[in-house]
Amino acid sequence: MAQTTEMKKRKFTKVFALLLAMVMVLALPVEASAAAKVTAVTKETKAKAVKKGKTVVTLPKATKKSSTYSYVKFKAPATKTYKITLGNLRKRGRSSASDILAAHSSLYKNGYYGLDRVTIKLNKKKTDVMYICSAYSWSISKSYTKKITANTFLPSRTASVKLKKGETLYIGMGNIERTKLCLDLTIK
């Protein structure tokens, strides 16, 4: 008789825990948001527009002769300083945790004769190129890197750019790999 009472208590506890878990799942809101996706193009005149927030950018693969440089553009909705972050470099499609990848990026504004590179400050040095790599590449190279400089490849890079309302910023990205790459572009 004691066993049956004990078994009933266990069964009741399991059912009660399951019901409680179901109530928690249904009662608490779950936010799911997907980042916008865009493919960068090789001509700045045909660059696709990105908005504030997170965007996944696909870079075309490099050819046998040279790397591929591609662009996306951002039109400033208001006059302020925007933070542009590039990171999470990975292969498009099947990606491995042990991928050794590298890319570089520059920011451009419309100038008198075309696009002019924007000078940014990275690690207290002025530069016009941001070097990024995959997380695995950084885990290998950080033991050899004595000092992080503006020319160091890092898994994430952030630059601040002052833009006027309606001004267009072109984000150029160079892919040296012979495969399509993706990276996360965040504009705040």
UniProtKB/TrEMBL annotation:
Keywords: Signal. Residues 1-32 form the signal peptide. This is DUF5626 domain-containing protein. It comes from Blautia ammoniilytica. The keyword Signal applies.
